[in-house]
Amino acid sequence: MKKSTIITLAIVVLLALFCVGKYNGIVSKEENVDNKWAQVDNQLKRRADLIPNLVNTVKGYATHEKEAIDSVTQARAQLAGAKTPEDAAEANGELSSALSRLLVVAENYPNLKADKNFQNLMDSLEGTENRIAVARKDYNDGVTDFNQTIRKFPGNIIAGIAGAEKKKYFEVTEKEKEAPKVDFGGSN
Amino acid sequence: MKRFASLALLICLFFNFLHIAHAEADIPSPKGDIYVQDFAKVMSDEDKEHIIELGKKLEDSTKAQIAILTIDSLEDNSLEEYSNEAFRKYKLGDKELNNGVLILLAMKEKRIRIEVGYGLEGAVTDIKSGEIRDKQAIPYLKEGKTSKAIMETYKAVYNEVAKEYDLGDDFQQKVSKPHPQSNKSDDSLSPIAIIIIVIIVIILVILDFKYFDGTLTYLVINILSSFRGSDSGSNSRGGGGGSSGGGGASGRW
Q1: Do B127 and A134 touch (CB under 8 A)?
Q2: Most buried pick, A12, A87, B134, B137, via CB within 10 A?
Q3: Residue B77 exposure: Cα atoms within 13 Å on the Cβ side
Q4: pLDDT score of B139
Q5: A135 at the B interface (CB within 8 A)?
Q6: Which of residues 10-39 of A touch B (CB under 8 A)?
Q7: Rounded to an integer, what distance in angstroms lies between the CA atom of residue B105 and that of residue B87?
Q8: Are the C-beta atoms of residues B102 and B86 closer than 8 Å to each other?
Q9: Which of A39, A49, A123 should we substitute to test contact with B (largest number of B Cβ atoms within 10 Å)?
Q10: What does the pLDDT profile of chain B (253 residues) look like in tens digits?
Q11: Is residue A80 part of a domain?
């Protein structure tokens, strides 16, 4: 064999190895994003699961607040039906704002606020909201990492061949930002 | 040349000390045993030792780690974000089991948070940590008995974790019910005292260089630097590699 052939072959092999490594990196990063999304999804479900209990407790004291209660129930149904990160983010924002409206209403019922069950639900709800925030941050970090990899050279070429697409962030909706914060926890 | 190097080292140490004295907005690196990170200096030495003893005992039998972190101020960070970041930085709990708990107090903001790692969310639920916050922490904190509040909170969390691992009754710590009682608050060094100490040290160093050719200074520097070397060694315990997903409860006093 000629010397130049050997060199060419070596370069091709090295290049192929490099591409395989890059490709595997993209795959595991994508897997990471999916995994992080599963965690966000888990916490969103957990939040949705707390709602019926909360609604029942509130109903026990505030029978006349039908409107506020109904909007929470509706937002919950929407969240339960959400499939994509965008839908979920939207529905979650909706639920947040409906919940905070309900909690503003709850302010007017001292007996409700003193209810042990209600206080426990508030702790659970706050904890879950915080878990969502953490899971969302982890997910978004994963998305940033993945998107950077498939957009930078040479990852973009391999991603193009493999058909990897940019992942969407789980963003805080405008509604959620506007929602008034009600804090029952520990301020007694 | 040697003298110059030592002097440079001394200056570095001095600035390092200043850096530690003023807690920055970012999360301070853990010092000594992971269980007590009292950066706000609100705990008595006795309570600290007690917690370290408890913490070691628990970790030896379960790999679970419960840690205290006190800071002067959150510096505009949110309590929840700060505590989650701190938890992950300190890597509380076992890497596989994620069985750590962080009790964070921000003194200026008067905020407390009990952050529970993934693995203990079943034992120390949000509701449970909320109860501990309301019963063991906030009543004492309102009375200004910070060290006592931390001790009681630590024990209450400890009991829950011990229960989870079926460690039996001899692991259970007595948690006292809060009741009003006059108690002196332990004070730390005032800024004036620190300035005076610094001035005395500088005078001593100058005298040493003048009369003893700096022998004593080199000796002290060597001892200090050897201490710093061994500090990260096997003597103190670090985090086990655990993580948290933001479970637990927050509150204010």
Answers
A1: no
A2: B137
A3: 18
A4: 93
A5: yes
A6: 39
A7: 13
A8: yes
A9: A123
A10: 556 666 666 665 555 554 444 443 488 989 889 999 999 999 999 999 999 999 999 999 899 999 999 999 998 888 999 999 999 999 999 999 999 999 999 999 999 999 999 999 988 999 999 999 999 999 999 999 999 999 999 999 999 999 988 887 777 877 766 544 334 444 566 778 888 888 888 888 888 888 878 788 888 887 777 665 544 445 778 888 888 888 888 888 8
A11: yes
Structural domain harbouring A171:
30-178
B138 part of contact set with chain A, CB < 8 Å: yes
**B251–A187 CB contact, under 8 Å:** yes
Give how many domains chain A has, as a whole number. Answer: 1
Q: Does domain B32-187 have CATH number 3.10.310.50?
A: yes
Residue A140 belongs to some domain of the structure: yes
In the block, which residue shows the tokens 């691992």?
B165
In angstroms, rounded to a whole number, what is the distance separating the alpha carbons of residues B31 and B27? 12
Q: Model's pTM, two decimal places?
A: 0.70
B85 in contact with A at a CB cutoff of 8 Å? no
Judge whether A15 lies within some domain. Answer: no
Partner-chain contact B80 A130, CB within 8 Å: yes
Reported ipTM: 0.74
The mean pLDDT of A92-112, rounded to a whole number, is 88
**For residue A11, is it within any domain?**
no
The predicted pLDDT at position B90 comes to 92
Domain map (residue ranges) of chain B: 2-20+189-231, 32-187
Contact criterion met (CB below 8 Å) for B48 and B69: no
Q: Which residue has the tokens 């069985």?
A: B99
Q: Does A44 touch chain B (CB under 8 A)?
A: no
Neighbours of A82 (CB within 10 A): 18
